[in-house]
Amino acid sequence: MHIKFASNARYYVLHKTIGINIQPDQRNCRYYVGEDVIINGRIRNVSKVLCKTWQKESETGSNIIDTTLEKNLETKKDIGEYILTIKNCIESDSGTYFILAACINDMEVQSNKIQLNVVKESPEVITSYVPEAVYDTTVVYKATIRSFINDTFTLWKKGEKNIDITKPKYKGSSNVGNCPVLCINNVSKKDEGVYSIHVRNKWGKTTFDYERLIVTGKEPVVSLKLSDQSQSVAHGNTIILQAKIKSYPAPSRIRWTRMMNVNKEEIIEAKGRFSIDVSDLKCPKLTIEDLEFSDNGCYIITVTNDFGIVSAYIDIETDASQMIFISGPVVVSTAGVIKFQTHTKYFIYNSSEEIKTQTFEIVDVGEDDSAGYQLSLDGLKSNQINTIVGDSKKFSTETQGNYFRYVALLSVCVDALRKAYDNLPDTFEEKINKFKGRCDRLQGNSKLKELLSRNVLIFILFICLTVQPLGENSRNYTFFASLSITFRKFTSRSTVLQDEHLPASSCLNKNKPSSSKDLDVTLMCAIIRNLNYIAKPTNGWGKEPQKSDITMADDVERIRQYRNSLCHDTSTEMETDVFNNRALELIWAIRRLSKNDLKLTEDVCDAMNKIFTKGETMEKLIVELRTIKKKVIKWQYVWITGRIIYYSAITIPPANKV
């Protein structure tokens, strides 16, 4: 501001009351030839101004701008507000501009000065700023182009790729004129990136401007549960896993998997017993028909949208207690009979209840009767027995198949007994030490001395044998390496075995037992009985329990009896009626002792459904079983007033066989 004044006092008054300011529409005061220059002026306290003029400085001084000409047009916007428009500017319009006002008291007031620069340079383009865009909305970029030649070429790009604005995605876009527009419809995460506009004028001079687009949204919200239409998680049932998904945008991918263990994840596909319904993306479903124990695991649904990946899971564990069992043959000759059997009282834990047997027979069967058979009762389903009908020489006979499955089932019984043994009071070491001490004290017992007078060779040693699952090599287990073997000879009518005939070295295990896995049925039964962890069986020790006898001691004795009878029987065949009765009794013994352990229940299903193929492997298995039986008969034990000792089989009366 420039003021002429007569005295300091007058200058002070005018400085406080009058102020003039001018501002061009382009902040950098830079204009292209052919554009209109707009300068806004404002005078404060205009009533003290007598007149004013727009001025332009030149080499010779200041020149008044004639605002009556069409070239330089002044308009009044409001009181004290004025606009000077310099139309179709040329390079000579460059210079310094200001307002000079004549005020009362013969004073002059001058505004600030602005330096205009009119050029013929590269085009200038400015793109409007767009904040974070919401998913599925339309984003509009507006550009303003300033150029010496208005005839310009405009191109929109995303990154380094040209945008075809004729596509529906960019409907509403334009690249014509000085105000081109880019419309991006239904934006998604993949539309994020850098968008730029490139401008080239007639003379080949180019420029560009850019903006980065960020699209906002939310990752999915997912939950997973059993559907209300699902049956219970029991063997043979159909279950439906239903997810609820809140996702905006809609999911781009839905995947079902099952975690088998920590390091193994299995992708679930829609085939077989599994079906997947994604017709409603908000509620996808996974249906599993005829549920099996092998279906157990952690089921996971993973939902992906443009903003994240979220998973939900549910643990599925088939309730083994909600299952019934049937027994029957896996191989039957043509024109034979398929005999199935189950207990009508399939959940018996009260010994006062009577267990009855229900049978189902298919007579005069043909090859068309080869199928999987299953019992459905009160909404529950049994294990499935796959039965093959035919006289093919490929498979074992019906009785051989029964026998081998019975051996496999007894192996599961041993695992169930170990679980029950581990759940008894005292640690493993405490049980062993207590039993060792009890055996040591027996040597002074009068009844024991009476027995020893029979002049037999006594082993204070526990020689144990277990039948392994079919297909594995049978192994002999011997224990208590820390116990010494005591050999005692007595005069007798019986032939005395010499030391060299005693397989002492083969009876000892180099390592001391550390868990129940190192013990077999013989030794576990002896410890359970002699240390009085449980009450006696219903009919007493050494006697075969009835079907209705279901205490823990009854099941221990039942397994011991059936296992011993198998070992002492030289046959490798078993009739279906016998197999069905014994198998069902053992199955419920397994379930009670293991408290319906899922793994053992699955092992039972596998054992009941094994089919054996004739050939070298099967013949070898039969030879191994016969060899095992000979070893078992060689070493036996008797139960004496609740105590157990081992001695040579040659003096054991048949009535005392175990």
Task: Please tag this protein with its features.
single chain; 658 residues; alpha+beta; Immunoglobulin-like; 4 domains; 7-stranded mixed β-sheet; 4-stranded antiparallel β-sheet; disordered N terminus; disordered C terminus
Brief write-up:
The protein is of the alpha+beta class and 658 residues long.
Describe this structure in words.
With 658 residues, the chain is α+β, with helices and mostly antiparallel strands. It has four domains: 3-119, Immunoglobulin-like, CATH 2.60.40; 124-216, Sandwich (Immunoglobulin-like); 221-316, Immunoglobulin-like (Sandwich); 412-549 and 562-573 and 611-656, no CATH class. Helix content is 21%, strand content 32%. The chain is built from ten helices and 40 strands. Strands 1, 3, 5, 6, 9, 10 and 11 form a seven-stranded mixed beta sheet that branches. Strands 2-4-8-7 form a four-stranded antiparallel beta sheet. Strand 15 (153-158) and strand 16 (161-162) form a beta hairpin. Helix 2 (398-422) crosses helix 7 and helix 2 runs parallel beside helix 8 (576-594). The longest helix has 25 residues, at 398-422. The model is unreliable at 1-13, 346-352, 447-510 and 635-658 (pLDDT under 50).
